[in-house]
Amino acid sequence: MEPMRILAVDDDPVFLLLLEHILSDIGYSDLHCVGSGAEALARLRDRTQRFDCLLLDIDMPEMTGIELCRRIRALPDYRDTPILMITAMKTLQYVEGAFRAGANDYVHKPVDELEIRTRLRMVGDLLDERRRRASVESRISTDFGLPNVVVSFDEPFAINEVGSTIEYLALENYALTLGRLRLFGHTVVSFKVTNAESIFFATDGIGYVDTMANVAAAIDGALKSFNHLIAFAGRGEFVAMISQRCSLETATVQDSIDSALERYARLYDALGIPMPRVCVGETQHAGFFSRTSVKQLIRDARESARRAMAVR
Fold first, then answer.
1. Is the pLDDT of residue 142 over 50?
2. The domain containing residue 106 runs over which residues?
3. Burial 170-197 (b: 16+ CB within 10 A, else e)
4. Residue 53's Cα: distance from chain center in Å?
């Protein structure tokens, strides 16, 4: 794992000193600290500096961490840079707002050394994988003179064109941040593109990502009456978390998605790409007294969509 250059943003200088001490103890010595969103943006716009990971507080004067996160995501150089919120704000309004603005993870203050070590190790693994993909894409571009996006059929990737979509890992982290009580009040549902593998082999990386983005937009439209977040999970599967306990009318959602995708029929036909077909799984809920984990809840939702595919 390569060394990680980190920028921390917090208006509390005492906390920044504490954070510097904790990160130094666990092997992250290349830490840079600023006290406001404006200072952070000035650093990030300076192309002589490049940061691998950003740690943001939420409750700051003049510009909140959530607004800062949103502005950072608008910077081309930091569109995909891992962002961790480190904050004392625990209410659902702030948690969901942070993930919707583009945060990848959410850590509560006071910072636990083991927890921050685990989260930063995950960030390091993510960065290593992205560097590997960027190297492959660069090599293909050099060899053939064509732009290319390297994606795996099995692995998740980010879809940035649809407002309610976040990365799959971020969706898992969001659910973990909720805790059992708030997770009980949420609904999880999965969607399966039944012919995703055919689409994957019929086009290149850019075409496949664009097609999955169209599916994400159709799902987003079908869930527009609910407050929700969507992530692409790989293998043509999407997972949505709805911030209320509900049972969807599966047939109505299915019809809405089919109608939205039908608008692209001529385009897919002209490009020789199969028209995406989507199945909707049954809604899943965490039991109040059950020990169902977040990962198991999401697995159950994805399995339900696969079963729906088998009988369609």
1. no
2. 6-124
3. bbbbbbebbeeebbebbbbbbbbbbbbe
4. 15
- Do residue 203 and residue 71 come from a single domain? no
Q: Is residue 112 assigned to a domain? A: yes
Does 191 map to a domain?
yes
**Whether residue 103 sits in one domain with residue 201:** no
Residue with tokens 């103890």: 25
Tell me what pLDDT residue 144 has: 47
SS3 189: strand
Structure tokens at 98: 């942070």
How far is 150 from 50, CA to CA, in rounded Å? 23
Please name the amino acid found at residue 58: I
Q: Please check whether residues 244 and 172 belong to one and the same domain.
A: yes
Question: For 250-284, how does the pLDDT look when each residue is reduced to its tens digit (9 = 90+)?
Answer: 999 999 999 999 999 999 999 899 999 999 999 99
CATH number reported for the structural domain that contains residue 200 in this entry: 3.30.70.270
pLDDT at 147 over 60: no
Q: What is the pLDDT of residues 72-125, one digit of tens each?
A: 999 999 998 999 999 998 888 999 999 999 999 999 999 999 999 999 998 988
If one counts the domains in the chain, the total is: 2
Looking at residue 3, its amino acid is: P
